[in-house]
Each structure stands twice: as C-alpha cells, then as structure tokens.
Amino acid sequence: MASSVMRKVSVRSLASHKLRLVLTVFSVVLGTSFVAAALMFTSTVSSAFNAIFDSAARGVAVEVSAADPQSPGVPVDLVDKLRKDKDELGIDRLVENVGGPVTVADSAGKPIQTGGAPSIASAYLPPGRSIGDPNGDIVDGRAPTSEGEILINKDAADKAGLHVGSPTKVVLGTGISDPIDVTVVGLTDMPTSTGGFVGIAFDEATAKQYFSDGEYVSVVDMTARPGVSDAQLRERVHAALGDAKTVDELYDVRTGDQVREDQKAQVDQFLTIIQAVFLAFAAIGLLVGTFIIYNTFSMIVAQRNKELALLRAIGASRRDVSRSVLLEASIVGVIGGLIGLGLGIGIAAVMLAVTQAQGLPSSGLDIGVTAVIASLVVGVVVTMLSAWIPARRASRIPPVEAMRESTVEPGAGSLRTRTLVGAILGVLGVLALVVGGLGEGTGPALIVGLGALLAVVAVVLGAPALSQPVVGAFGSLFAKPFGTVGRLARTNAIRNPRRSAATAFALTLGLMLVVVIGTIGTSFKGTVNSEVDKGVTADFIVTATNNGPLPIGIADTIRSKVPDAGVVISQALATAKVDGQPFWMSSALGGSLNDVAVVHTEQGSLDVPGDGLAINASTARDQGWKLGDEVTLTAPTGDRVPVKITGVYEDSEVIGQRIVGEDAYKKLVPVETMRQAAPIWVKGRPGTDVDKLRSEIEDVTKQYLVVQIQDKEQFKNTVSSTIDQMLVTLYALLGLSLAIAVLGIVNTLALSVVERKKEIGMLRAIGMARAQVRRSIYLESTYIAVFGAVLGVVLGLAIAIPLIRTLAYWGLDGVVIPWSLIGITLVGSAVVGVVAALWPAVTAARTRALEAIVES
C-alpha cells in the first residue's frame, strides 16, 4: 500500500514541476543520443558494405594471392603448375588477373580525387573467360580491345565529367613514368564501386604489359569441377603450391567465402574504430551529464525537504523515500532515453546524408534493436546512478529537522573528510604524473594515465573546498566595479560549495580534454616545424597531392630536364620482415640525404652503401643492434637480403627511421611495385633563383597530374593543416560535453532561482532593481564557469605536459603550450557563464516580491 502511494507521489511530483522535469531530462538526452547515433550509423554502413562484399569474388571457388601487399604477386611458374594439374586438382576454370594503382585525370586534366578510396586498374576479361564478372556490367560503350582504350566505372566517370569517347590520361603507380593518353570506350557498373573508388580496365595484353614482367600475376581465381567443394579445392591447391609453412608465409589461399569474409572484417575493423570514437565521446558526455543529474536531484531533494519529511511523519519509511526519488530518476531516464533515441536517429540520418554525398553506400538507415535498447538502458542506468546519493540522503532526513524553514541541501555540511581524501589522491596523482613524465615509452605513459585518473578524482573530491577560496577571489575582483551586487553574487556562488563544484566540474572535464588535445596537437606541430627548420636544407619538397604514390620516374625527369636542379634525391619506400615482423624502410635514390637534410650521426655514416642499412637511435635501442651488425631482411617474395648496419643517427622526423642501400632496395622491391612513396628533395645549384627553380620543376612535372611542389613553409603548413583538421574534429565532438556543461549551469541556476524565490522576493521588496537581480545571476554564473575553466586548464596542463614527455620516445620534441587556446578558453568560459545565466536571470528578475514572501 505504501509503495503504491509513494509511486503516485513521485509521478504527481514530476507532473506538478514540468519545468524541473524538462531541465532534468535534457541532462540525459545529448549523451544517449550520441550512443544511439554511433550504433545506428556504424550498423547502417556495415550492412551496406556487407551487401556489396556479398557480391565480391562471385563464382570464385578458390583464390590465390600474395600474402604481402608489397609482393609482386603469384609466380607464373606456380600458375602454370596449377593449370597443368587442373584435372587432378579438380579445377574447372583458372583465370589470371593483373593490375595495380593508377591515377586518372578528369575532364579538366586534373587527378580524380578519391577521398582515400582505391584507384586501381585491372585487365578486362570477356564474360566467357572471367569468373564472376569482376568488371561489372557494361552500361554504355564497349570493352577495351587495344592499347590506349579503357573501361571505367560509371560513378567515377560521372564525378570526373568523363563519358564514352572522352580522351584522358592515366599515370601508373609503377616504373612507367610517362602519363598514358587513353580514350574512354566504355562505362561499367561495378559492384564494388563505393565512395570515391576509381576502377579502370585495360585490355588483357596491355594490362600485362603495364603490370607484369611476365614472371608474376596479381591474383589467380579458380572454379571447382562438379563434385568438388570449395573447401576441398582449397586444400588441394594449398598442398600443390608446396610446403605448407612456406605457402602460408608467401600466399593467401582462400575460398570465395573467405575472401568475402576477410573484406568484411577489414571494413568492420574500420567501423569499430569509428564507433569506438563516437562512443568514447558519448561516454564523456554522459559522464558530464552524470554530475549535472546528480546536482539536479540534490537540489530537488533539498527543495522537497518538507514534503519528504511530511511523508516520513505520516508513516513512510526511509526505503519508501529513497525508492520514491529513484522512481522519479527512472522515469526521467526513460523519457531522456526515448528523446535521446529520437535525436540520435536525426544525428545518424544527417551523418549518413553527408557520407552518401561523398559516395558512401547506403540502403537506408538501420535503426536496429541494439540502438533502442542501448539508449534506454544508458539513459535509465546513468540517471539512476546519478540520483542514488541524493536518494540515500533524502531517506536519512529526520522529519523534525526537514520541517524547518531551511532548504539547505542535505549532507552539505563538513567537507573535511572528502577534502582530506582528495588531497591524498591529489598528492599521489601528482607523484605519478611527475614519475611518468620522467620516462619515455608505453610504461611511463601508463603511469601518467594513472596519475591523470587520480588527479581527476582528487579534483572531484577537493573541488568543493577549492571553490570557496577561488570563487571568493573572483568575487573580490568584481566587488568594486559591481558593488553590492558583486558581493551578493559571490555569496550565492560559495554558499553551497558542493553544488558549485559539481556544476563547474562539467565544464572542467570538457576543457581539460580540450587543453590536453590542444597541447598535444600544438606540440606535434612544433616538432614538425622545428625538425623542418633545423633538418631540411632542400629548397623544395615534391609530394603527391592525394598522399598517394608518385611515379618513380618523376625524380629522373626533374634530374634530367631541370638545369638549375643541383641535387635531386628521392626516398623510395621498401618493406621487409625481420624475425617475422614487418620492417619499413626507405632508400635514398640519386645521392646522399646529407645533401638535403641535416642529420646528426652518432656512429658510422649516413652515406649508405648499396648493401648497407642506416638506422635511427630508437631502432638500434629496440632491436639491440649496433654498428657493423649484419641483418637479414626477408623480401615480400621470400628472398633473403643480407645488409650491414653502416650508420646510427639521431631520431629524425625528416628522413625517417631506417635508410637502406639502393642495391638492397632493388632486391627487396619488385619493379612492378616500385613507386615513390616518400618525398623527392630538390636543391638548386649555388646562386639559383628559387622562384625560377620552382617554375622549371612545375613545367616538367605538370603532366604527372599528382605532383605538388612545396617549399619548407608550405610543407610545414600542409602538415599543420592535417593536424588542425583532426583537432577540429575532436573539438567538435568535445563540443557535446561543453554543450551539456552549459545546460548544467542553466539547470543549476534555474533550480537555484526556484529555491531562492523567497529570498529574491525579499531583495526586491527592499529595493533591489530587476536589472540588479539579473546582474547578480550573471555574475554568479560567471564565477562558477570561470572556476570550472581554471580547474580544467590547470588539470589539462598537468596531464598534457608529462604525457607529451613520454611521447618523446616516438619523436615528439618538447612541449608547446597553446597559450592562445587557453586564453580563448578562459574568456569563452566567462561568456558561457553569461549565456547560461540569461534565462535564469530573466526568471529571477520577474519574481514578484509580495507573492514570493508570502509563499510557503
């Protein structure tokens, strides 16, 4: 019976305070909406890609490809062996495929921008010879039949303004350096045509000429004869290729189903990362919201002291009271979860529309049961946890004490115990931050992470005690210009330190993350700028416009056709394995990197001989190598290439970690996969005008479509803009927590105005003007907001500085504090305080003196 009565009381309490209900619900909505949006968006994109991959490798029973993407492919000798043993193995049809990366020009002669999607070429095989029609259906024109003709996917052609009969150019990502003049003879509807994907097809003879030296093919597809399953054929082919261990090291032998599942897994891994990022920021928003909900329920309980005491007096137990508060919280959680779900659907729909405009596939928004359940569960659980402490306090209020006039928040007494615990944790946190900041690498970074956690908890516990002196100091600064109103605002801001601290912490957490991310970003930019300024002596750096590979012949073209180019050195990328682990290197082709960069050598020389290897200090330390050691590199083809360490140099972001000799490079990298992945460094002859040199380089490289020429400042700006783009994305996501923080201040002030209605009425009665009432609320909000911002900045710097020191292991050189960002943050927090106070201040100013005084 009592439970039924308490349920009615809870429901009626919510219904009778609609404004309070709206403000409380809003604290849950944004966090839950991002949880729902993240789940729905990734589910929708995953479903779309899965549908596409279901059509990949159609009709293929078994596929053989190189295990290493840098490998030239499958040897023709093995293909001939499989073809010879077709009957014995159970192979029906066997098809060789060749292809590679390309850049295609649009109708204006500029490279088609793929947005990171592949741009590849393959050989066109007629339906009678192909398996599963990998080139799709020709929707316009015809298939290529001779050199100089291409088939292109319709999506890419439409984007590029190409049609049947359009002349264009193709640049191959191999040793073929000169752009190829081609004509579009057909458009195809490829099943894998997603995003900015560009797929072209040459006739078979031309494709083999461009992408094979006659010794390797890219992929081998097979179909099985009747009575032979895909799995059986796979086992037979695997055994026919040679020793099982060697085969597994060099080749992927998979059924068509395995090929599709592997492709799906790659996309799922990517989408999992995206989902994790969104959920992480949603978690931050929910954490911030938790403090706001806790604050809100603490104030609600304080305002209902008399009501709850009366219930206790007429027979309600402590359990009944706590359950009543928790029931209200669960109702708020359900409502907030449902609204958050609706908002999440809207956010996911907008995200999907943006990605579809970029060409990402979609078959409609997939809401799914998971997103619905997650929104409701998260909303209810977060709200219930946030309200648990206020509910527990409410149940402990003695009826006689609660019936007094005061509506002070229960439990708002001594802060001694929590402050002492906070101080101890703070000392431990600072100690961990200092110790971690003295080291480099993963271990010290984890110690810094522990210190950061302890520091955050210490701030949560110690903030109420800190709020009184800090906010009091702010109030003292504004007391003179604002007089009595300033002093009144100061008194209101520190009268309940728990409440002020909880309100400010929402802003503290968001700004702490902004400062940490901003400091790391500016430090990375500072490192790049410093490395380029100190380490680059070249006049120009030649790179690809889309961050893709440059044709390897570009360096030769600059070297032979630009008379004022004194030194032209290209860094070509190579990969191998050392003890089974990937090992990335570059090779300086055309000279010594000493001619274009300043690198401090610790041992030996940076002039690497053909069979030599120069390594940075970090590699030497990690591998335990020293000058003169011989290292065996395993090429993607399985060949073993011995090299001798001829130099150890200081870590340099300019030239990379390892430089291998040119002879070893040529053994490691097949001709078919040679491409210029790192910059081409160009230094003019003594006395050369750099503007003239740039013009000459532009003239001889413009035909290559993908070339961009940068001086040192432009190169630094390119790197900085990339970092800035990532920071803007992170800041935008962090805006969620800051938006919730603003709502938290609005919420707290609005409820505080209700709580102080009689007090405000008395002030109005003795002559306080409405403008003064508004001003006092503005100042109170500003004090709290600036207090939260200062805490966030201090905490952010305390975490960022030692964290960056640990990252020196990975090349980060020193801490660069973003003072402008910090200044904007502090000024912005004051603005936030005023904006957040607008509505509560207007509400307070409208308080009628007589009604407020006589209200019980």
From TrEMBL:
Pfam families per UniProt: FtsX, MacB_PCD
InterPro entries: ABC3_permease_C (IPR003838), MacB_PCD (IPR025857), Macrolide_Exporter_MacB (IPR050250)
Chain ranges of the ABC3 transporter permease C-terminal domain: 280-399, 733-846
Keywords, comma-separated and alphabetical: Cell membrane, Membrane, Transmembrane, Transmembrane helix
TM ranges: 21-41, 270-294, 325-355, 367-389, 420-439, 504-524, 730-754, 783-804, 816-839
Domain MacB-like periplasmic core, chain residue ranges per copy: 22-239, 500-699
An example Gene Ontology molecular-function term: transmembrane transporter activity
Subcellular location as annotated: Cell membrane
Signal peptide per UniProt: none
Membrane topology (UniProt): Multi-pass membrane protein
PANTHER family: ABC TRANSPORTER PERMEASE YTRF, MEMBRANE COMPONENT OF TRANSPORTER-RELATED
Family per record: Belongs to the ABC-4 integral membrane protein family.
Name of the protein in its database record: Putative ABC transport system permease protein
